[in-house]
Amino acid sequence: MTKESEIKLLGTVASPYVNRVQIVLNLKSIEYEYVEENLACKSELLLTSNPIHQKVPVLLHANKPPICESLFIIEYLDEIKPDVYRLLPSVPVERADCRFWAHYIDNKFYPLYEKLRITQGKEGKEEIKKQIIEGSMLLEEAFVKTSKGKAYFGGDNLGYLDVVLGCFLAWTKFVAKHNEFNIFDEVRTPRLVEWAKRIWSHQACKDVIAKNEYVVGFYMMLQKYRPLG
Ligand SMILES: N[C@@H](CCC(=O)N[C@@H](CS)C(=O)NCC(=O)O)C(=O)O
Q1: How far apart are the CA of 168 and the centre of ligand 1, in A?
Q2: Which of 21, 53, 102, 165 has the smallest set of CB atoms within 10 Å of its CB?
Q3: How far is the CA of 202 from the centre of ligand 1 (A)?
Q4: What coarse category fits the chief subcellular location reported for this protein (predicted)?
Q5: Per DSSP, what are the bridge partners of residue 59?
Q6: Quick one: which atom of ligand 1 is closest to the CA of 56?
C-alpha cells in the first residue's frame, strides 16, 4: 500500500457512491482512513467539508480543500496516481464517451431504482421496471462497444465505467429480488451477467460492494423516513 500522505474518506457503508471511491483506492493501493458517517446525525466535519450537498463521499487529502462528488473524487485519484490502474482512457473521445455513460448511469439509470421504490400501484411499478430493463439493454450495448471483446469496460483491467456501474451491483441484486424481476439476465444482457460475476469476485471490489445486509438495512430506513421520496 502506498500512503498518499493522509487521505481520509467520509462515507457510509451501504452507499454505492462511497463504495465507488473505496474500489478505486483499493485498485490504486492507496492507504486511507475511513470515517463512518451517521447520515441521520451528520458530523461537523461532513457539514463543513460538503456544505452544499451535505452528502458522502467526501475525500480529504492532507490540507487541500475537500473533494466532493464520487465521480470527481475518482477522477482526482486517477490524476494523482495515473500509473496504477489508469481508469480513464488516454484517447479524448473515448474519455468523453466514458463520461457520457457515467452521467447516464448516475442521472437516468440508477435513479429508476428509487423511482421504483416510491412508485405506488402495480401498473406504475411495471412501467418503471420496463424502463430499468431498457436501460440495462443500453448498458449492454455500451459494454459491447467499450470493452472491445475484453472482460471489462476498461478492457483487460477494470476501468472508469467498471467502477461507476460496478458499485451498484449490490443494490441491483437487492432491487431485482425485492421486485421479482431480472435487471441483468442471460437473455437480454449476457455480457453484463458475465461482467458482474467478475466484479463480484475481483479483489478490489469483493469486500467493498455493500454487503446485502447493509443494503437491506438502508432500504428499511428509507421506507421508514422517506416512504414517498
Ligand atoms: N452525486 C453524489 C451522490 C452522493 C449521495 O447521494 N450520497 C448519499 C448516500 S448514498 C448521502 O450522503 N445522502 C445524505 C443526504 O441525502 O442527506 C455522488 O456521486 O457523490
Answers
A1: 13
A2: 53
A3: 25
A4: cytoplasm
A5: 9, 67
A6: 12
Using the mean position of ligand 1's atoms as its centre, give its distance from the Cα of residue 187 in Å: 33
CB atoms under 10 Å from CB of 17, counted, come to: 21
29 lines ligand 1 (CB under 6 A): no
Q: Residue 192 corresponds to which cell in the numbers above?
A: 453484463
CB of 50 shorter than 6 A to ligand 1: no
Mean pLDDT score, 27-45: 96
DSSP label at residue 12: -
Place of cell 500512503: 3
Nearest to 78 by CA among 35, 8, 21: 21
Residues 80-115 have pLDDT tens digits of: 999 999 999 999 999 999 999 999 999 999 999 999
Binding site membership of 179 for ligand 1 (Cβ less than 6 Å) = no
The strand order across the sheet containing 2-11 reads 30-36, 2-11, 58-61, 67-68
DSSP assignment of 136-202 equals HHHHHHHHHHHHTTSSBTTBSS--HHHHHHHTTHHHHHHHHHHTTS-SS-TTT-HHHHHHHHHHHH-
Please tell me whether the peptide bond between 89 and the residue prior to it is cis, using omega within 30 degrees of 0. Answer: no
Mention every residue, 6+ apart, whose C-beta is less than 8 A from residue 156: 150
